[in-house]
Amino acid sequence: MNVIRTPRLSLHEMTPAYARHVVAGTPADGVRWAPGYPSPGEQRAAARFLATCADTGDPSPFGSYAIRLRADGAVIGGAGFHAAPDERGSVTIGYGLVESARGNGYASEALRALLRFARQRGVARVLGDADVGNVASQHVMTAAGMRLVGEDASLRYYLVDWTEARR
Asked: Which strands make up the sheet holding 64-69, listed edge to edge?
């Protein structure tokens, strides 16, 4: 199991057993969840992860990760990849934190760590999106080095493309 560490966080790769706990809303023995975890979005991500495991196998290391505070081990959210890199070397990311953990820079820290992780594994491009009204999430992607590349009526789309630096 991959664990990605940052100064304040550890991102623990989701296993099918852990994903079942998230979907059910019941923590595994010895795992402490911050109030509000899992959110409906985290439960959907865990269900998507389980479906991927059933359909095509475990996407490791390009799956979902639980975001834990290193100080006390509490799970405060999740982040991860929607799928393994496609034929162009692109992945899509997503993330979310419980409300009590927001505003501390944790999402930007986790996203930067995922971007480094992806780049070290040869990913060429990382895509993400945020609701038009979710300015905080837009700031997270910008702070992590992603740039706005488009928008429609409901979403703003972000990208980091390491192939552009090679041109």
From this structure: 3-5, 9-13, 64-69, 75-81, 90-97, 125-131, 155-161, 147-151
Alpha-carbon span 146 to 121, nearest angstrom: 18
pTM over 0.70: yes
Residues β-bridged to residue 81? 93
What is the enclosing helix (H) or strand (E) of 17? helix 16-24
- 25-67 pLDDT, tens digit per residue, is 999 899 999 999 999 989 999 999 999 999 998 899 999 999 9
The CATH number of the domain holding residue 141 is 3.40.630.30
Confidence at residue 1, expressed as pLDDT on a 0 to 100 scale: 79
Q: Report the candidate in 93, 104, 162 with the shortest Cα–Cα distance to residue 130.
A: 93
Whose CA is closest to 140, among 97, 101, 100, 111? 111
If one counts the domains in the chain, the total is: 1
Burial 136-162 (b: 16+ CB within 10 A, else e): ebbebbeebebeeeeeeeeebbbbbbe
Asked whether residue 166 carries a pLDDT value surpassing 90, the answer given is no
Boundaries of domain holding 155: 3-166
**DSSP secondary structure code for residue 28 in this structure:** P
Residue 13 tokens, joined: 């790769």
pLDDT averaged over every residue in the chain: 94
